[in-house]
Amino acid sequence: MADLFTVTAPLMIRRPDGATIVIAERFRHPRGLLYFEPFWHLGDPDAGIHLAAGAIAGDGPWKVGDHVVQILVCHGTDFCAASTFQDWRQYLAENHDAYPPEPLIAAIARRHGVVDAVATLR
Question: How far apart are CA 72 and CA 82, in angstroms?
């Protein structure tokens, strides 16, 4: 059984409206899953931070309320998400000093209601 919070493969989430978002950071939230979009820290960070409310079920893909989280397979699943993920990886590689450190990311997650802010995908 794969745990959503320990799997190291890149993930994406499909929202109830059908939009797919690459997950840059993820945290267990008392009401479900708190996730950060790529590039969330540029501009208004709160615009790129979302709560998927609901019980977390499954072992990949995972259901979180009306959302579905799955491993991002870069070949053949969702070209747009795969492209976003590649852009995100490249950005991190070239700008690693510009990305917030893990303690700050954890503090932001706690501000959004996360109780035990243990990070993430990196």
Answer: 7
Helix (H/G/I), strand (E/B), else coil: 47: helix
Handedness of CA 107, 112, 117, 122 (dihedral sign): negative
pTM of the model: 0.88
Q: Is residue 95 part of a domain?
A: yes
Domain of residue 92 covers 11-111
Helical H segments across the chain, by residue range: 79-94, 102-111
For residue 5, being part of any structural domain is answered with: no
Give me the sign of the Cα torsion angle 30, 33, 38, 44. Answer: negative
List pLDDT tens digits, range 66-75.
999 999 875 5
Look at residue 35 and tell me if it is in a domain: yes
| 70 located within any domain | yes
Number of domains in the chain: 1
Residue percentage of the chain with pLDDT more than 90:
66
Separation between Cα atoms, residue 80 and residue 70, nearest integer Å: 15
Tokens of 78: 């969702």
